[in-house]
């Protein structure tokens, strides 16, 4: 993996942590801002208190929406980068496979070359020693 790719993955982890924290805080704020009033049995409540609670919950939801929009754009950017990393990784795997095939072929050709050189040296030595019979004699 390239250093740039590692940096992108680290940034992704940071964004994911920020998102998880934002959602967790939003849930806590919404739970703290809502009234849990039974709606049966003639329950009553002060209209101003209910209004304040609903307004507070609405403020939290609006803040959460803004936070999610910000995180969403970052996630989309990271998604693009992760996709590019996956493409590069696939290409690297294909290149490594091709490299492996080429190396095996090169080794076989080197073995053949060494064998032919050895045979040639043996023929040359035999020729010089007069041990080589020529065709047609």
UniProtKB/TrEMBL annotation:
UniProt similarity note: Belongs to the QWRF family.
Pfam families attached to this UniProt entry: QWRF (PF04484)
Can you say what this protein is called?
Answer: Uncharacterized protein
Q: GO annotations under biological process?
A: spindle assembly
> Which top-level group of life is the source organism from?
Eukaryota
GO molecular-function annotation terms?
A: microtubule binding
One Gene Ontology cellular component term attached to this UniProt record is: cytoplasm
């Amino acid at each position: 993996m390239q250093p740039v790719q590692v940096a992108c993955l680290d940034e992704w982890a940071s964004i994911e942590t920020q998102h998880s924290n934002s959602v967790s805080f939003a849930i806590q704020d919404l739970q703290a801002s809502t009234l849990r009033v039974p709606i049966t049995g003639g329950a009553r409540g002060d209209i101003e208190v209910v209004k304040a609670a609903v307004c507070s919950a609405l403020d939290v939801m609006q803040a959460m929406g803004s936070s999610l929009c910000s995180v969403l754009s970052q996630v989309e950017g990271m998604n693009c980068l992760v996709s590019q990393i996956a493409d590069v990784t696939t290409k690297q795997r294909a290149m490594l496979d091709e490299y492996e095939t080429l190396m095996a072929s090169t080794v076989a050709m080197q073995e053949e070359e060494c064998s032919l050189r050895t045979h040639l040296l043996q023929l040359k030595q035999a020729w010089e020693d007069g041990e080589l019979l020529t065709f047609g004699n």
